[in-house]
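Hey everyone, long-time lurker, first post.

I ran two proteins through the pipeline my lab uses and got sequence/structure pairs for each. Pasting them in order. The first:
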Amino acid sequence: MELIDVISSSIAPSILEKLDFRLIRVVVEVLVRHNLIFEQPFFEQVSPSSLQRNISFPHKTYSNHTPNSQSLAMPKIIVIGSLNVDMVTTTSRVPEAGETLQATSFEVGWGGKGANQAVAAAKLGDSSTKVYMYGAVGDDVFGPQLIKGLRSDGVDNDGVKSLEGEKTGTAVILVEEESGENRILFTPGANHKLKVDDDLVPGGEYGDIAVFQLELPLDVVTHHIEKARSSGAVVIFNPAPAIELPESLFSKITHLIINETEAAILSGLPRDSISSTSDLDSISTAFIEKGVSSVIITLGAEGVYYQTSTHVREKISGKRIPAAKAKVVDTTAAGDTFVGGFAVEIARALDVPGKDGLDDQQKVVDKAVAFAIRASGKTVEKAGAQKSIPSRSEVLNQGTETATVERTSSGHSQDE
């Protein structure tokens, strides 16, 4: 007799249907931890009659027969995006046209906005968070090393394709030594060889949280955003490098994370027209009116502004959080760390049953933004992309100060 049959036959149906699913989930996690059951077979054994009521979480509602039912035991974050080789040169300043300058250092590392965000989510999550990467590398010398690097950082890399005859994407990054600011040239390589009809996400398993950027072809990104939203996943979109987007796409986005330049481009305004002094309430409201649930605008040294559909309905202004205290060394992965940290906190909220009220949803975003700022603040204190991303314990063990030291970071400079 299967374990679930034993449980069901031991409890009267009238009582079973009234049990708080949180109790069932705790029992399951204990059993899984002691290798008595595996979570997926267990949930396949659960009969619909024993789970008739929907279980609500902030930003998402789970029902008895959804593709994501196993996430009730373990949140699942899917990242669909780019994987690159980062070739990083540190210099005292950026050379003028026609000028040759001796650089301070050079190194090769693993990056790409998609891979960086996946690694950030894995490092900033805890044992209850699973992160899966979907994308493509070339069949050159770099591809296998990138894939191996993901696994070593705790990311499931089974969804990364190796494309025959293609080169792995590359990013040439110049980092100014004094300011930590970066300038990036991105060659997509295998990233742009992915097509809409590729079976990139087998079975349409988009998990609980699906994270996207714009270093893959736009039609591929929009296709998977639509599929992810249809599957019931929370969609986090970091549209960088920014381009004009189809108006219909915004209604599929749960959380939109952008910097000032990206906000301007998506709003149809000149690139440099939005700053921390702009009317960010009006700008964010325009996105929310198109269907986005929350808009987060990173402002560099000025911190982060964010607005939610909850506050727009209540006619409450958006919130600002000061930038994290940091001595900046390299801002390359700051934005991607912010996105990964935000995704982790949203996933953790999904794993804790709540009232599913508007106030609860607002608190989830408040907490996610605050954690993401602290995480990106730690990232900029080290050189490199993925290797600079901190662990969850490093972030939680640091102070909570937001005063600036030399220069601040909020995830504004992104790996673009």
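...and the second, right after it:
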Amino acid sequence: MLGFESAVGWRAVRRGPFRLGPSVCVLCGRTDDCPEKYGEKRTYVEYNLTVHYYCLLMSSGIWQRGGEDEGVDGFLITDIKKEVNRAAKLVRMMHLVLTRGKGMHLGNLKKMHIKTYCIVINTVMLEDVSARKEETIMNLIAVKENLYFEAGKMIAVSLVHGGPPPGFFSKTLFNCLVYGPENVKPTLEDVADVDVAQTIKTIKHANNLSSLQSTLQDCCEFLAAAGCLRPVTALCDKNVLVNDILISHVIKRITLPLESFRQGLNTLGVLEKMQMHPDVFSSILCHKPERLSAENVCDLFTIHSSSDVSKDEGADFWMGYLQDVESGESVVTFEDILLFATGSCYVPSIGFDPEPTIKFLHIRYPIGNRLLNCLELPITKTYQQFKNIMELTIRNTIRIERE
């Protein structure tokens, strides 16, 4: 495992000339030259390559395979270029999905959250793509390039490191992952394709043998493709047939990508934990997180007293401000407050570490100590002063960071 070295201590690469400059890092796409944040940035003329050291460390598909005198401090140039190509394929796939009729362009992808990417992958896995040629091609590319594995791995790493609760898995997908697809019975709600769903409904609601046989005759090509074409001699046969169609369409059709997705989720032992604690993970993966409110934000932060300020001093203003935010009487949102104090606009699945705290101090402006998840708030004479200072500081801080 590669050790984490300081930017100053990064050993010089002895192979070929290099220069520091404003070129774009091939991994993160940034021109920033900030060693404290990105590590040392170097441009290698002979390889036509610019890279940040920390970007190399954080890339999931590359590791040091060479000696310290080879490539970039042990990272081989061929490996770096392969990683760049792999990342480009992920971006192209997201571009294919996001641009289908939605007017988005590739520049928007830079601002995409990992959650959005995973939603895209999940949608591709569960939707019926037979009706759209571009989606069929994209699905085949995803399988060929092993992108379902990448999606599962991204979700696993995100969860372990305090990322957002995905909240978009269907119950059927979750059960396939945890209990195995052979033990799952899909329902009509799992069928995204309108035509397929209507066909299944017609078969299910046939009220006599003649109408059932007529329906089956009309959709015999679909049934043959699904491996469900068979003689029907009694009306009750429709129940078994509907179940077989659902299993074929919802589960068997995605066997390869589903298995690849499962393997990706097994990164860092996440899938194993899902199987050990299905109820806990179901709430994280299948249900959207609870909307932030004045009550749960208040409960999230523990108020600590200081040597010269009592615990209750300022607490009333804080509670009043949360009520204003909840009622829409503030330009700041609960997500803004959370981002200002912790650096995250959501509550991580594994909770905050350390737990968020509040201190009321004799200071002019609020301070968000994100390293400690501590919100330091000023003591003011009136509530309006408190509110004005909070709005000004939090809003401007968030705006500057977003710019």
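Reply from user beta_strand_b:
Welcome! Quick read of the second one: The chain has four domains: 18-86, 88-177+256-285, 188-253, 294-402. Residues 1-21, 95-138 have pLDDT under 50 and may be disordered.
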